[in-house]
Amino acid sequence: MAETKLKDLSSLRPSLKKLINAPFASPATTPAPPQIRNLYQRLSREAKSRKYGERPWITIAAATTFTLNSPSSLSHLHSTSSSLTPHPTLPSLTPPLTPLLLAELIREVGLKCISFNGIPRTINCLNAFRSDLEVNPWSSSLSSVPSRTVTTSNINNTISRGNALWKSIYTPHHGKLTQKLALAHPDLPGYILQGHYAMLLADPPRHVEGGVPKQARLGRCLTSLVAIACLRAQRGVGPQVLSHVYGLRKAVEQGLHREEFEDEEEREGMERLAGDEGCEWILESVDKVARAIGGGGFAGWEREVDQDQEDGVEDDTRLDGEVSEVGNVAKEMEEELQGGTGSGSGRVRGRESKL
């Protein structure tokens, strides 16, 4: 009797297959819209005119596209950004992003999207993106050696990097937030810090064998852009968006952009992005890409939403009538920054005045 049941489980009846692939469940990836190349080109022009730099806009566009589960749009992003003429004011000391480096950058963005979107969308998009790249002769040079493998010899350093990243984003509230997460579930802070911040979001040491080239590494600043773009495109997680907007500002306050970007123009571009106008541009850029691609699932975007209609609706509701603890931490960060604490707060506002 038991063997018969096992045999029955080896196949699915047609009605079950049909239900799994029901159109209302959006079982497939999201196709690229016809206008997506033009939109990516527009974002590139805006980023150049505002002097935000090349890697930031590509990171924002890629993270949004991963979130909307549109691998075919990723291929358009790569080909569009590869064909753009370098801006005459880009620093000569910065190595140009070749098609190979652009592909590495987009793949690295997709990997870090796991911490915000989950594993399936990254698998879907990275597999399809890698397949689309096969037509290029340089595809055989894509990185193939892992750089995040944990061993007994590097486990302590790996955890330390994760804790340092967590502190960098949420300081001085990192300890309080960890305690609140533990109240939600005792394993939650350990999994977040060790499984995501340590293993994934914090870049591995540069001396480690394998991994992507230096120009394709995200670092602290671009990782914050990944977080903002993913969470904004998801919808429904406003407190987390707010928290990572302040996380981006913390990175500039701490001077990390000066360690991660070699040229002064790139550093100043990141300072502009961390200002109010820069952060507004980040969110608006995510919204434009999300509206263009649309797609179902948790993102729930409809293609070409009427912006005027959407702007006329005020959303003053709160989930369960409360603000999450992450939202409280973000508000405390806001009060701290408005109070002018830290030597970097003036740097953000000062750079913004040049816009």
Automatic annotation (TrEMBL):
For this protein, the record's PANTHER family field holds: CONSERVED MITOCHONDRIAL PROTEIN-RELATED, PEROXISOMAL PROTEIN 2
The name under which this protein is listed is: Dol-P-Man:Man(5)GlcNAc(2)-PP-Dol alpha-1,3-mannosyltransferase
**What organism is the protein native to?**
Podospora pseudopauciseta
Q: Which domain of life is it from?
A: Eukaryota
Give me the ranges of the annotated region Disordered: 300-355
Coiled-coil region(s): none
